[in-house]
Design brief:
Blueprint (H helix, E strand, L loop, with lengths): L11 H7 L9 H22 L5 E10 L2 E8 L6 H9 L20 H13 L3 E7 L2 E10 L4 E11 L4 E9 L10 H11 L4 E5 L5 E4 L22 H9 L6 H8 L5 H10 L14 H13 L15 H11 L4 E6 L3 E3 L3 E11 L2 H4 L5 E6 L2 E3 L7 H8 L15 E9 L16 H39 L2 H12 L3 H15 L11 H4 L11
Parallel strand pairs: 1-7, 12-14
Antiparallel strand pairs: 1-2, 2-6, 3-4, 3-6, 4-5, 7-8, 9-11, 10-11, 11-14, 12-13
The structure holds adenosine-5'-triphosphate and magnesium ion.
């Protein structure tokens, strides 16, 4: 018997076709949100990289039961004809995977995953209209699953003065709903953290919503860094070395990685005397690469260049939050970058809004998770952010029960590489350094609202007591009048003023701002 007669190879496209839930395509509402998420993140990435202020329109048309057409149009640089097929029809292909730069996309799967999902649920190719460098191309794209290769049918080519990409695709087994997990909420949150973008949404019921731009310029561009020696494995070194054009190992190390100077190379030489640093990088053996990684671990390195990261920023978050929630109190943290896995830089931004519009919106204990400004709506349970929020002793901050209070917490993880738990990119892995920093950041913001909440609570208690006592004034002054012969009105006035003096409530608080609690900021650093 030949046990291996069924042994076969399969492509990544076939794999994800069978395991589409790993890409986030599970559940009708979620699947539709994931589709919009993939296209919108691509548009934002492309516009910002090209230095264009993003204008993105999303249209969703209902074609039948659980059957929709999705159109996403941007004003970005478009995609050249040479690459449109691979961009939309080949998995694990794109401009982002190999780069060490803060971007929303990082895998090279998103767009082709949508093409796949569309094709397997409707049998239809995805239509793309790409305007790039004066050329407009309209094409239909599908994929050869066995080979993981795009199938492109060119429909029309013209000259144009426009630029941008429009993707029109059809899906079955999806559903539009205005729920917490729907497209509307996704775009609302995207607008919150991307104030430089105009985003419009046309819903299936023809309702049009415009999420306006509140900042007229793109954020500073994050810049690309080389990998830091502390985040490198033996296999990484060998792979980099294999493709290096340097003639010597010493110069290869200085050029391939950040913070490796000639001085550091001589330290590495002393730590790994068995390695010949003059040899060609391509001749490096596994054992030698292992020695270098060992030596990397012993050298004292300057931390990676953390200014490569661009968080949303305190002012922008404040502006967006006031716009959306107009809370009684709002605290935004601005913290310095840190490093996880020894060599990957990241920054945590947090904002906590309490009361005011948060209560009006009937939001209770709302946690808004973001990674590189992209809202994470799903897989909350398995996410490091959720876990960290749960581990905080909220009572310490006068929040009796997080789930029952009018509180909204935003956490944005910014990094050159976000450690997602799956290809669906909806939850962040439990990296220890990341979780510790998220905790510090949230605690810092919590201290800011703590004072406000205790003041407000006290004022409420006093107001309640005053109300209770005031109820007796009428009867008491009538009784006293008949006992003493004094006029009832006079007695009542006097009693009222005694009550007024005794129960002085706080004047309505002006909304607390981040600036005012600034001086408390640094305490958090030492807290566990
Ligand atoms: N709207 C767009 N404008 C310009 N280029 C785009 C656009 N959308 C996609 N691309 C190009 O197509 C590539 C593939 O996109 P895709 O979403 O599949 O992967 P990604 O964004 O690189 O990573 P991820 O899978 O994490 O989203 C991108 O890397 C980018 O080069
Ligand atoms: Mg993408």
């Amino acid at each position: 018997m030949d046990e291996f007669k069924d042994f076969k190879e399969h492509s990544v496209a076939e794999f994800f076709k069978k395991n589409r839930q790993m890409l986030g395509f599970s559940g009708k509402i979620r699947s539709l949100t994931m589709i919009v998420h993939e296209f919108v993140t691509n548009s934002l990435d492309a516009c910002e990289e090209a230095g264009i202020l993003p204008e993105i329109s999303v249209e969703i048309n209902e074609l039948g039961k659980d059957h929709y057409q999705v159109t996403v149009k941007d004003n970005g640089p478009g995609i050249p004809k040479t690459h449109i097929g691979k961009a939309l029809g080949q998995m694990l292909a794109g401009t982002k995977f190999h780069r060490y730069i803060q971007q929303r996309g990082q895998q090279g799967i998103g767009a082709s995953a949508c093409t796949m999902f569309s094709y397997i649920t409707t049998g239809q190719p995805t239509k793309a209209v790409t305007c790039h460098n004066g050329k407009k191309l309209t094409a239909r794209i599908s994929m050869d699953f066995k080979k993981n290769k795009p199938v492109v049918e060119v429909i029309e080519e013209q000259d144009t003065e426009e630029s941008g990409l429009t993707v029109i695709s059809e899906y079955k087994d999806v559903r539009y709903e205005r729920s917490n997990y729907g497209v509307f909420e996704y775009l609302r949150r995207t607008a919150l953290t991307n104030p430089n973008a105009i985003i419009s949404l046309l819903e299936p019921n023809s309702e049009k919503t415009l999420f306006p731009r509140s900042i007229e310029e793109n954020p500073k561009r994050p810049f690309e860094i080389r990998p830091h020696p502390l985040g490198i494995t033996t296999h990484d070194i060998l792979e980099f070395a294999k493709h290096s054009t340097e003639t010597r190992l010493s110069s290869f190390l200085q050029n391939a990685f950040s913070r490796v100077s000639a001085g550091k190379v001589s330290e590495l030489r002393d730590l790994a005397p068995e390695v010949n640093f003059r040899k060609k990088p391509g001749d490096l053996t596994w054992a030698e690469a292992e020695k270098i990684v060992e030596a990397f671990g012993k050298v004292k390195w300057i931390a990676p260049a953390t200014d490569s990261l661009v968080p949303i920023g305190q002012q922008q978050i404040e502006a967006s939050f006031r716009n959306i929630f107009n809370p009684d109190v709002l605290v935004v943290t601005e913290r310095s970058p840190k490093v996880y896995r020894g060599g990957i830089p990241f920054v945590i931004e947090t904002a906590i809004a309490y009361g005011g519009g948060v209560s009006d919106a009937n939001k209770k204990g709302e946690l808004m998770r973001f990674a590189n400004k992209v809202p994470l709506l799903f897989d909350a349970g398995g996410c490091a952010i959720t876990e960290t929020i749960r581990s905080i002793d909220w009572k310490r901050y006068n929040i009796r029960n997080f789930e029952d209070e009018p509180i909204a917490v935003l956490v944005n993880v910014v990094s050159v590489h976000v450690p997602y738990t799956s290809a669906g990119k909806q939850a962040i892995a439990n990296e220890e350094d990341l979780m510790a920093e998220i905790k510090f950041a949230v605690m810092e913001a919590s201290r800011g609202i703590q004072k406000f909440i205790s003041g407000k609570r006290k004022a409420n208690e006093i107001a309640t007591k005053k109300k209770v006592v005031s109820r007796y004034i009428e009867q008491l002054s009538a009784d006293l009048a008949s006992l003493t012969g004094e006029k009832k009105e006079k007695l009542s006035k006097k009693l009222s003023s005694i009550v007024e003096d005794k129960y002085v409530t706080m004047k309505d608080d002006e909304p607390e701002t981040t600036e005012r609690i600034e001086e408390e900021k640094d305490e958090s650093e030492g807290e566990a």
